[in-house]
Records
---
Amino acid sequence: MKQISITRYGDTDVLKIQEKNDPEPSAGEVLINVKAIGVNFADILARKGLYPDAPKPPCVVGYEVSGIIEAAGQGVEPSIVGQSVLALTRFNGYSDKVCVSEKNVFAIPAALDFERAAAIPVNYLTAYQLICVMGGLKKGESVLIHNAGGGVGLAALDISMHLGATTYGTSSAGKHSFLKERGLNHPIDYRNQDFLASIMRLTNGQGVELVIDPIGGKNWKKSYKALRSTGRLGMFGVSTVTESKMGRLLQFARLITQMPWYNPLGLMNANKSVFGVNLGHMWNERDKIAEWMQEILNGVEQGWVRPHVDRTFPFDQAGEAHAYIEARKNIGKIVLVTGR
Ligand SMILES: NC(=O)c1ccc[n+]([C@@H]2O[C@H](COP(=O)([O-])OP(=O)(O)OC[C@H]3O[C@@H](n4cnc5c(N)ncnc54)[C@H](OP(=O)(O)O)[C@@H]3O)[C@@H](O)[C@H]2O)c1
């Protein structure tokens, strides 16, 4: 088998292919012959040493794959072998063969190819938790989706449209026409305009009921201000941390000084709430994950879940895939294909 290892913290050249013996599934696991691997922003943060959840290098990251089950461990129904599946992998996903618990494996709906199947788990589960579970978005409400052109952003757009909400989204201007075609009601060029002023203008000074914000730092303060009464702010990332050229510790220190601190009395009086989402820390909540995934896969069948793969890169070009995302070129998902 082959894996892409982060050999040390650094630029894309620290990603190296290594060969190993094929893994064998333990009891309760399956071995997947991997066809496609979803690339996530967290993988880039891990490579740069900015993702505390990731294992220390040398390590193999990767949260999601799709492929064909090649072998089943003890206690797993053998007829599962040969099935096309998508799977959550807590690291080790950048591999052309991987073992995972059968509980983290889901059959791919007939409508999906392997590339689009690999684009589903992290983006749609995160968006589902943000929008439906913790954000409680309802028909007739409004939502501001930051990074609307990213993988989670497009998933959040699909779900919000399905619920019947009015959608506002920030992204680079070059992504606006695509986002409008996808159904976004109000794109905002947050890199050249003050998004808070834009939201207030577009909502006649009221604000929105839900904001989902993966930018972090001082952006969270502004997002909170964009909420109307009963509004909820979902915080789920710190993309801003990659923008500075400072050392790792200084980058974190800067981030912390920019973060808002929420006061319970202030929240009460404003009739607002704030919450956080980290899908990587939901690993022990498999029943919830399975239930959400079922809703999402039903959405594929019904047509409102539309995973969008911007580009695929061959397995040995993971560095190019990272660079493409870091240069903000992607709209939706970037996927590595193994050629298996
Ligand atoms: N907590 C969780 O469970 C969870 C799960 C998944 C993702 N996340 C977080 O959500 C965020 C988006 O993830 P994703 O996988 O959807 O991302 P993605 O598809 O890789 O999207 C990247 C996009 O983010 C925007 N962006 C904003 N700040 C950026 C920066 N400093 N450098 C590069 N791009 C930047 C760019 O869009 P524009 O050109 O429009 O600016 C870029 O195209 C990340 O912070 C990620 O860590 C969190």
---
Amino acid sequence: MPLRMRTLLLTLVAISLRAAAEDSVSAVRHEADSWRAEHRIIDLHQHIDCSTQHLARAIKIMDAAGIGLAVNLSGGYVTHKDGEVSEFERNKTLADQLFPGRFVHYMNLDYSRWNEPDFAKTAAKQVEEGHRLGAAGFKEFKRLGLYLRDGNHQLIKIDDPKLDLVWERCGELNMPVSIHVADPAAFWLPYDDKNERWAELRDHRSWWFGDTNIYPPRMELLEALNRVITRHPKTTFVAVHFANNAEDLDWVESALDRYPNMYADLAARIPEIGRHDPEKVRRLFLKHQDRILFATDFQVYDRLILGSSGNEPPPTDADAQVFFEKEWRWLETNDRNWAHMTPIQGNWTISSIGLPVSALRKIYFDNARRLLARSLPAPVVKAAHIEKDFEPDGGAAKDVWQKAMPARLECETRDFAARPEISTAVRVLWSDHYLYLLYECPFTTLTTFDPPQFDKERIGLWDRDVVEAFIGTDLEHPRQYMEFEVAPTNEKLDLTLNQGGDGFSWDSHFQSAVKIDRERKVWNCEWRIPLSSLAQSKPKPGDRWRINFYRCDRANHAFLAWNPTLSGTFHVPDRFGAVEFGSEEK
Ligand SMILES: [Zn+2]
């Protein structure tokens, strides 16, 4: 065969292998739409003014876009005058009260005592106070290195040793640091209408850093941050705006290569990243898919800001939807040369990078979950109400289950590490008599006790494959709960915890059925538990019980939890989520 022909054939084989191994755009979009429908997407970079009206506007837009959780980087200071609550505490309290589970907040550092000799110590105390108040992380703005000045009018340096204790404490307390240093390269170029960022600079004179008498060179700022990241290997640094250097992919790649404690968020930089060769961007995203985070710089104040803004008429809620649509389009399709999502950033087009599902879910939520593990809000699953009772038969095909939005069991209980290959859907229904559960469990090999033991309960059933639910119905006594387990053999176990006596002798009379589909490699487990065995009185629509779901899959060394316990045991009632009883839909 002529060499050219062979090369052509090999290329064709390579292309078809790649196509087979990767997901089609329509499959990717379908999967991502389901994540949005279930509100699984986390936006790691928003700024929301915590007033009732602005929070409500943010939620309305997030609901329509399919964002479940937003990280508000502008949580505020934890310092306060005597007798007053801090800005941070006020903001967090209001957001949690109005929209529980939808926002987490990062704290900001109050530099007002910078010139006092004990600043390093009191600043570390601010971090401790933020941690105590529930700050999910720590945010520093570009003010450091560019605007903040000491008593002698000198710029405070990003790597000033007086801040070392702050970075150190953030690491010890498991608070990730999101840090913005420098700005787009064009902000250091001449201030005139030839500047490619002129539209932005014209409306924000203070964003121009080209005066060398006032401002340090851009790369000096980036290098100072790298020194901080090197000095604090146990602290996680999310370098925002694509590592603050979206113009230079090689630089970002080598920084991510060098610093395992460095992450990059995408906030407001898709217009810049999207100008590069999409194949090159894609390679970088695949290489560092574990440390790139979905983030937008969506902001709600009196005006909306969609990545950036100037003096143009304010965007509407509908514009915000277009903005988020374009975020998805860039990550999920292979579209070329289209108008980006933040026109004020520059008059050019971008090209999409068509990521596969496996990388996309890391960027949309798996990476953020690991980062925020300590402070992710406890999840809530809705139990849909049904009128007609049915006997469990293990079948997922029953239409009635489609009424229930699934909860996902797909993280290791110890640390939120994602296990998408065995992501297990759990659905919940209730009638006037029973609580129904359906688990759909992808598997590779089943590990069970053989033969199963049906005449009496086997203590230690959990040493093989099982699905489990822990349910607490006495809200006054959160340490008291009931445990249910079913194995793929339909061998089962129920017991009470911390309620005195021998918990194993308790019998709820729950019924279960298992169906194993060996071709599709999925086992289903369907149960119903009499409500009368769970609580003195039946739940009413709107009531909540405490619940957590688990799965042990020995072949995959997996101990999955719906809300991970962040420890080696499932028995952490503080980490239970909730089941909310829905009313009959007419
Ligand atoms: Zn921002």
---
Amino acid sequence: MSARLSRRISAISESATLAVDAKAKALKAAGRPVVVFGAGEPDFSTPQPIVEAAIAAARESGMHRYTPTAGLPGLKAAVVAKTKRDSGYEVDASQVLVTNGGKQALYNAFAALLDPGDEVLLPAPYWTTYPESIRLAGGVPVDVTTDESTGYLVDIAQLDAALTPRTKALVFVSPSNPTGAVYPPEQVAAIGRWAVEHGIWVVTDEIYEHLVYGDAEFSSMPVLVPELADTCIVVNGVAKTYAMTGWRVGWMLGPQDVVKAATNLQSHATSNVNNVAQRAAQFALEGDLSAVAQMRDAFDRRRQTMTRMLAEIPGVTCPEPLGAFYCYPAVKDLLGKQIRGRRAGSSAELADLLLDEAEVAVVPGEAFGTPGYLRLSYALGDDDLVEGVTRMQKLLGDAS
Ligand SMILES: Cc1ncc(COP(=O)(O)O)c(C=O)c1O
């Protein structure tokens, strides 16, 4: 008898970040004072003028109909202009496909590029959606594992070691979820040149481009390595920059043949992205970057508080995150120790213990391909942040 569900779909695991969020929310709903460090989204509301633009769009009858799969011409033009303004990358509107968030851009990209068995180099720790979307497209994710000793940055020697005749693509994400690492421009350029030299595609996720702190700077790989343009797909969206996670608007930029193929796929899967959300995104992109500047200031303050407080816990090592809104401390030294009468043998068990004993929700490193770590988002209010990390300090400070 055939299985009830397909092997392909049964193999997809539940998003660990969403699972932690759901568990924490259930506890909160039951009246528990849980501090949730699981969120992958800004805690700010979408700026009101963007919301007003959506309301105006909803009143236009043209917005009530199907529109071109690849996106409203106005939004595509805004994406072209915004890309040139923010990263310096110049593309034509025919190289833009508007998608339901950066997530669909990734699914489209891997589906368009990969044949069964094609290998994709995936620097780990990685965001959970990459391996799933690679596998669903028939590809094989090949982890290139980094750790806190290099600030979670991969180097060329590691890429060389992972390269095989089946390698088709490399995933590159800076600033990174879950580590907050930001590659210096020289290293971005070196990795881009390596990809060109070996004829490897790069899928580069620029969704956190505006969330960089201190002296760190964002750099776009195809701008630093123009020869990469014909074998590079850029993924981006409005979610993190404009606090628009729920609107579901992202895009992919790529060579015309890839964008055409991905558009064909999307035309059968989901068609055009919600028109009202597209118009809100267009308004956001055509405006200035003042809203993200304000969010960045708040995130920077919280980043420094969280990094300092985590580093005070014996057994926790936390490199300073330079981008996005996550800390990714190593907790290997705490595993196996006695903590309030219990022992956590893995970071997943430690995350459970933190939830049970301190009512603090974090995502274990297992979710990102590197056990022995925790991911904490600092996209939450300053007081909650201090309360949550203080509870962690108290609980983990007792480890013996
Ligand atoms: C690295 C990275 N890329 C893409 C996304 C997806 O964003 P979207 O909401 O636009 O699908 C996320 C969301 O968490 C992310 O962390």
---
Amino acid sequence: MERLAEVLSETAGRLQDNYPYFHPLYAGQMLKPPHPVARLAYALAMWINPNNHALDGGRATSAMEKEAVAEIAAMFGWRQFLGHLCGGGTMANLEALWVAGQLHPGKKILASEQAHYTHRRISSVLQLDFEAVPSDSRGRMDANALEKRLARGDVGTVVVTMGTTATGSVDPLAAILGLREKYEFRLHADSAYGGYFTLAENLAPDTKQAFAKIGEADSIVIDPHKHGLQPYGCGCVLFRDPGVGRLYKHDSPYTYFSSAELHLGEISLECSRPGAAAAALWATQKLLPLVRGGEFARGLESGRRAALSLHKKLCGDEQFLAAFEPELDIVIFVPRAASVSEASEHSRRIFDAAARSNLHLALAELPVVFWDGDKNTMKRDRETITCLRSVLMKPEHLEWVGRIWEVLTLAAEETRSRRLTSA
Ligand SMILES: Cc1ncc(COP(=O)(O)O)c(C=O)c1O
């Protein structure tokens, strides 16, 4: 016991070396603390440590996984579907593209320039050709460029991003569905980050229209470990046609013996998976059902309101240049400067100064066209700019926008006066 206490103290000590992710002044990367009910249910189930591969390894938690996944599918209007939990967004997208590649062998996978970087890499793992489609000045897939590319006739699958990682931009799903009528391709929705915004009622009309159509995709990825209040290790992939289950068919002589009922391992690429993740998700959705107007949905709406509020403050301030209005809960901005290089350098300084005052933002390297507008008088000496990025994904961020703004403007002023002193 003494040794155990020593090791645990040492572990706790090591864990000090982290940013305060739980705190509203942590507004950098896409990190949201798991809900207490998820932590407790996870710990409870982990004591048993069930394995959701086969039913005899995790009977109760396999049933919980099926129920929780059905609730997620229902959010997109799907009653008949095939789906399961997995390690995260990358694994879920891998499964979706693995299925897509089998249904359209030898054909290309397309995703926008702003899609998650893993789509290109997943395609290379699956030995499928990948091509990026240009994005517009708001970070969304350019539907005209897509149509030109589709006209060449060798595209099997289009990945639509419902909330890009960098800016929370939502691809124009309605227009892309229109193109599917004409060019017949498979449509995969990567809504790893944005999917839960289907429940939010305060989106801009075009964003709302895109989310309303997500159920028309052939497959959907959503990450409960991003906006779904779960600990890491919880992604989800859904297929509209349950028939794709045949593509998973394999024999495992040592596992599927306890019943003729479906074992989740029979429809999943991963073998062992944590039953505890299913228990945590199931409990969270019991407490906070996935319904419009519910507490969970209101949390997402708060994040979007926080992002709009920060964007408005940035637009009204001479020190900053905001990019386009946020579609979800991510805001990007730069300090005003004479040139793109200078603004990039100042972004880094403000990032450091804010961190010294415990406001943790993120930096991103993004196309300068995101700042196209009358107010942008910067000399364009580079095509990309280092900007400040803030993900306001905790419901508490709404109450903290005032404080975030105070620290941010002080950090910008401090950086500017240092610059003037050293000049
Ligand atoms: C849109 C999108 N897709 C996929 C991923 C990858 O998900 P994960 O990190 O869970 O593997 C992310 C991660 O941020 C994402 O934002």
